[in-house]
Design a protein that fits this description.
Blueprint: H1 11-26, H2 33-36, H3 47-52, H4 57-67, H5 73-82, E1 88-99, E2 110-116, E3 122-129, E4 135-143, E5 149-156, E6 159-165, E7 183-186, E8 189-191, E9 194-202, E10 213-219, E11 243-244, E12 250-257, E13 265-271, E14 278-281, E15 292-298, E16 303-311, E17 322-327, E18 341-346, E19 352-357, E20 364-369, E21 372-378, E22 388-392, E23 396-403, E24 414-419, E25 427-432, E26 438-444, E27 450-456, E28 459-469, E29 475-479, E30 483-491, E31 502-507, E32 516-519, E33 528-534, E34 537-545, E35 556-563, E36 566-567, E37 572-574, E38 579-587, E39 598-603, E40 611-614, E41 620-626, E42 629-636, E43 643-650, E44 656-660
Parallel strand pairs: 1-7, 1-8, 9-15, 16-22, 23-29, 30-37, 38-44
Antiparallel strand pairs: 1-4, 2-3, 2-5, 5-6, 9-12, 10-11, 10-13, 13-14, 16-19, 17-18, 17-20, 20-21, 23-26, 24-25, 24-27, 27-28, 30-33, 31-32, 31-34, 34-35, 35-36, 38-41, 39-40, 39-42, 42-43
Length: about 675
């Protein structure tokens, strides 16, 4: 169990204690070992190994903070400097950890218990390990709130990580229960089967890569992944730190679920600014040694692009510009849904950047900056041996204020600027409001209309305003009282509501395309939907199945106009069925089919829509559940020139032939 801070602690006294602890370890005093065992690498080490190890003062300070019940030295230092902020409080949390499959107790589970106040402010922290009976007990002490959240997190290499609220009320109220002084809470925890990933990242010469950032997602193949596991792997409060490989290129991740839901699979993404992003699918299907899966990932350096970003009007360097290249790595199309990778870099004070690119380059290089208009460059077969120079034009700046639905300033709202140009609308820039709801948004085109949309920073379903901004307009107010929620329904041929929940996205009214401005919470009534639209003006609504967009039995895109909050048409929409489209790839020279080519199809009127897959031995791919209308096809195949933005209208009524040109 963790010890408690002395009655009147000071930072200087704690620093002195850490130095004394380090001195004791270096002199061979075994009394230092109990505190140093709070470090993970010494958790089960004998005294001799701990006393023989080389330790820094920072490590000892961390161990001392853990022993006092804090997550790190900084948290303990902040608490001591703040001093007591209220009456002394304490709670003891105990219980038993068992297997959900067998009900047997689990020994060796790391149990972390934390009391935290509003806004995830940590009050107290303790950590222990379950005994042979699976039992644990932790005591927390703090000053102040008598209604904290008391969280219990359990970690073990053979079980899925689990976190519960030990202080929740029996009626499931959102308000934490009031704790009495010295109260004891009994919380038993059951864990389901899980596994641990031991990862090694190396380069092409088999040397370890330090500082590679690792992300694990349980992905259903949509272009926007969800069910992120990263937030649940560290046990820290607030924004978790990145998962990075150590000096040996290694990283150990516990708590992954062994039971992945149908239609999902794990996607492992490894990113480093000196290498090309690597993705690995289905790590949950790999063989294990006991509960441990061992994986080695080899990163490729790819091609290096260097360059300089300058102002078009003065040739002066632009610092802080983001250079980004988004691509779909060959052979990585999980469940037939393309999944993008992104390589990016930022310019230094001299405007210089260096970016790693894959061997196959398909699509544009984009450059953005808060004060400059976005620039786009098609690299194609350009030689990367020489640095590239990209010019940016000064951007228009718009200031304004966001008000919520009650007319009050909306702090921490997200403001998004969207282009009005066809054929593809795109997000130009984003900004966050301050405590008074004020924002400043730059980098906008000076001679082009844009749309601004404001959303709650914590809940994208809450829209505070949608407004068109014309050239020369430099101050706007996005008023949540000026948006209108309207209801509608999607019906079948018999006029009955379709038997699925409906997703409704609101887009800027572009020519056959658009970027999302708002969305509303889906209705639980089958076939019904709600849309958030401006009180005046026209927008596009895209309608599909909420539960599975890419297998939706219908897709509709409709234009609506509001005048003083009233619609120009009824919102009873007849479902437009989806279609199947066959694509066939052939060699442009000899007409032979091309197998194992990655194909992506993107309808031009859907900001989120990308379908795809890999061609079979006959060079054919059949894609189903496609919305009707114009689309663009992208193809990457080894040994062939990539096919970019090939136009097609779905459905064609017959297999559509795509001819690829062999590389010289």
């Amino acid at each position: 169990m963790s010890q408690s801070l002395p009655p009147h602690p000071t930072v200087e006294a704690l620093k002195k204690q850490a130095k004394q602890l380090l001195s004791a370890q270096r002199s061979g005093d075994a009394g230092a070992c109990s505190t140093l065992r709070t470090l993970r690498r010494f958790a089960e080490a004998p005294d001799a190994d701990i006393l023989a190890a080389t330790l820094s003062l920072t490590e000892v300070q961390f161990a001392l903070a853990m022993d006092y019940g804090f997550e790190n030295w900084t948290a303990m230092k902040q608490r001591v400097e703040a001093g007591p902020t209220g009456p002394a409080r304490s709670v003891t949390v105990s219980g038993q950890v068992t297997s959900a499959a067998t009900d047997q107790s689990i020994e060796g589970v790391e149990v972390r218990v934390q009391a935290q106040a509003m806004y995830l402010t940590p009050l107290a922290y303790a950590c222990t390990v379950t005994d042979a009976a699976g039992s644990y007990e932790c005591r927390l002490e703090w000053n102040g709130s008598d209604r904290p959240d008391v969280l219990v997190q359990c970690r073990h290499e053979a079980f899925k990580l689990r976190c519960i609220d030990a202080g929740e009320q029996e009626d499931n109220s959102d308000v934490p229960r009031q704790l009495t002084p010295g109260q004891r809470l009994q919380r038993d925890v059951q864990l389901s089967e899980g596994f641990t990933l031991e990862l090694r990242v190396e380069d092409e010469e088999h040397l370890p890569v330090e500082g590679a950032e690792v992300t694990i997602l349980a992905d259903d193949g949509m272009t926007v992944s969800h069910r992120s596991l990263r937030d649940h792997l560290t046990g820290t409060t607030g924004l978790p730190p990145a998962l990075l490989t150590d000096a040996h290129g290694r990283l150990r991740i516990e708590g992954l679920s062994a039971a992945v839901p149908d239609g999902y699979q794990y996607v492992l993404e490894v990113d480093h600014n000196q290498y090309v992003t690597h993705m690995l699918l289905g790590i949950d299907k790999l063989p294990r040694k006991g509960a441990v899966t061992q994986v080695t990932v080899r990163l490729e350096r790819g091609r290096r692009l260097t360059g300089r970003i300058i102002a078009a009007n003065t040739d002066r360097p632009i610092e802080g510009a983001e250079v980004r290249y988004v691509y779909y790595p060959y052979g990585i199309i999980p469940n037939g849904r393309p999944r993008p990778c992104c390589e990016k870099a930022f310019t230094d004070p001299h405007g210089h950047f260096e970016l790693g690119l894959p061997q196959e380059i398909v699509g544009p290089l984009t450059v953005s900056h808060p004060a400059w208009q976005s620039a786009e460059v098609i690299l194609g077969d350009r030689s990367l041996a020489e640095p590239i120079t990209i010019q940016m034009l000064p951007g228009h700046v718009v200031t304004g204020q966001v008000l919520d639905r009650d007319g009050r300033p909306a702090g921490d709202a997200e403001v998004v600027a969207v282009t009005m140009g066809a054929p593809h609308g795109k997000i130009l820039n984003t900004a966050r409001t301050d405590g008074q709801g004020l924002f400043k948004l730059g980098g906008l085109p000076v001679d082009q209309r844009v749309w601004l949309a404001a959303k709650d920073g914590a809940d994208s379903y809450v829209c505070f305003g949608v407004r068109e901004v014309r050239p020369g307009e430099d101050h706007v107010v996005l008023d949540g009282r000026e948006v209108v929620e309207v209801d509608g329904s999607v019906v079948d041929e018999a006029g009955q509501p379709v038997s699925v929940r409906v997703a409704c996205f609101v887009h800027a009214p572009l020519d056959q395309s658009g970027c999302m401005l708002s969305r509303a919470n889906p209705s639980d009534r089958l076939g019904h939907f709600r849309a958030v639209v401006p009180r005046h003006g026209g927008v596009l609504l895209s309608l599909s199945s909420h539960d599975d967009i890419f297998s939706s039995p219908f897709f509709n895109v409709v234009t609506v106009t509001t005048r003083d909050g009233r619609l120009d048409r009824p919102l009873t929409i007849r479902a437009e069925p989806t279609y199947e489209q066959a694509l066939r790839l052939v060699d442009a020279v000899d007409g032979q089919p091309i197998a194992e080519a990655d194909i992506t199809l993107s309808p031009v009127h859907l900001w989120y829509g990308m379908w795809g897959g890999t061609s079979n031995e006959a060079g054919t791919l059949v894609i189903d559940h496609l919305p009707p209308g114009d689309a663009e096809v992208f193809v990457v195949a080894k040994g062939y020139q990539p096919l970019i933005e090939h136009p097609i209208t779905v459905p064609t009524g017959q297999p559509h032939a795509l001819r690829l040109t062999p590389k010289a």
